[in-house]
Design goal:
By secondary structure, the chain is of the alpha+beta class. 14% of the residues lie in helices and 30% in strands. It contains 2 helices and 5 strands. It has helices at residues 10-18, 24-28; strands at residues 39-40, 51-58, 63-66, 72-75, 78-88. The strands form 2 sheets. The protein has a 3-stranded antiparallel β-sheet, with no helix packed on it. The protein has a two-stranded antiparallel sheet with strand order 3-4. The longest helix is centred in the N-terminal third of the chain and has 9 residues, at 10-18.
Length: 98
């Protein structure tokens, strides 16, 4: 299938052509060159500055508070579906609330 059938912009098509992606099938076999290694850690082993990933249902609308530059904090409440957390080295947990 040609890339035109995917209804992508000309600019995006140019980027894909520069990556040697000429057909939709080529796009399906294009893999990221960088991966994050994630490992499961029990909650009692979490430390400040850890980055966590969890699955939950968002209960309210997210509120974004912007600071100077590109800094911001997003606040929202969640109900955990499955409390299985993964951490990635070099990432941060700024604050853990209820």
């Amino acid at each position: 299938m040609e890339l035109k059938a995917l209804r992508i912009s000309e600019k995006k098509a140019e980027v894909l052509h520069s990556m040697q992606i000429m057909r939709a099938e080529d796009l399906l076999t294009c893999y990221p060159f960088r991966y994050e290694h994630l490992e499961a850690k029990p909650r009692n082993t979490w430390e400040k500055e850890d980055r966590i990933i969890f699955e939950a249902v968002i209960l309210n609308r997210a509120r974004v508070i912007r600071f100077r530059g590109k800094q911001s904090v997003t606040r929202f409440k969640v109900r955990s579906l499955m409390f299985r957390c993964l951490t990635a080295p070099g990432c941060r947990l700024l604050r853990w609330g209820r």
